[in-house]
Amino acid sequence: MAERLSADARKQALSGIPGWAELGGREAIGKTFVFKDFNEAFGFMTRAALVAEKMDHHPEWRNVYKTVEVVLATHDAGGVTARDIELAKAMNAIAKLTPT
Amino acid sequence: MAERLSADARKQALSGIPGWAELGGREAIGKTFVFKDFNEAFGFMTRAALVAEKMDHHPEWRNVYKTVEVVLATHDAGGVTARDIELAKAMNAIAKLTPT
């Protein structure tokens, strides 16, 4: 099982994934992605969903038209783990290819 | 443009779409769908996204693993319109085909 990252390790990991930040009141990381329109936003979600399913590690996310708010945490570990960082990196890579 | 439904018209329309209810504090309707797993939940979202895009009328929705919380409202009309009822019906029809 992936181990919960310490506050220092979280901070260091976050420095490598632009746009992601720690959530207030909860050990989790989040980012709001904004795209060109619903087509691009849902396209991003679909590609991210395939990655998440393959990792067997799923996001909490909310979509309103061209916006996708994502929260990542590892429930079993009670915090943020390397799996969240990995998924966050993958989402950034997908978003880079998606028109905004 | 679709016209905002009156409270009576909303109530009557809701009686025909099981599981949908008016939201507190906001003129909108909502339903929480629960499926078997992420695959089924995201499959539902994908089919619903295609319908929404075709209608050019999009949901606000949140997905956590096998759960999809949907809120529908027509922003331009400042409330619930026939388009929301139509999308809600389509979502119920899609969910019926999706294992829970």
Brief summary of the model shown:
Chains A, B: One of its GO terms (molecular function) is 4-alpha-hydroxytetrahydrobiopterin dehydratase activity. The first copy, chain A, has a four-stranded antiparallel beta sheet, covered by helices on one side.
What does this entry look like structurally?
Two copies of one chain form a homodimer. Chain A is α+β, with helices and mostly antiparallel strands and 100 residues long. Chain A has one domain: Gyrase A, domain 2. In chain A, 41% of the residues lie in helices and 19% in strands. Chain A has helices at residues 7-14, 38-55, 82-96, and strands at residues 21-22, 29-34, 60-64, 67-72. In chain A, helix 2 runs antiparallel to helix 3 (82-96). The termini of chain A are far apart. Chains A and B meet through helix 2 and strand 3 of A and helix 2 and strand 3 of B. Strand 3 (60-64) of chain A pairs antiparallel with strand 3 (60-64) of chain B, so a sheet runs across the interface.
- Topology of chain A as a string of helices (H) and strands (E): HEEHEEH
Structure summary, number of beta strands of chain A: 4
Taken from the alpha-carbon principal axes, the silhouette of chain A is globular
Strand content of chain A: 15-25%
Overall number of structural domains of chain A: 1
> Unreliable stretches of chain A, pLDDT < 50, 5 or more residues?
none
Oligomer kind? homodimer
| SS class of chain A | alpha+beta
Spatial gap, N to C terminus of chain A: 36 Å
Question: Which bin fits the share of residues in helices of chain A?
Answer: 40-55%
What can be said about the biggest beta sheet of chain A? 4 strands, antiparallel
**Mean pLDDT over the full residue set of chain A:** 96
- Helical element count of chain A? 3
CATH class division of chain A: Alpha Beta
Strand order of the largest sheet of chain A: 1-2-4-3
Q: What would CATH call the architecture of chain A? A: 2-Layer Sandwich
InterPro entries (chains A, B): PCD_sf, Pterin_deHydtase
EC number (chains A, B): 4.2.1.96
Enzyme class (chains A, B): lyase
GO molecular function, one term (chains A, B): 4-alpha-hydroxytetrahydrobiopterin dehydratase activity
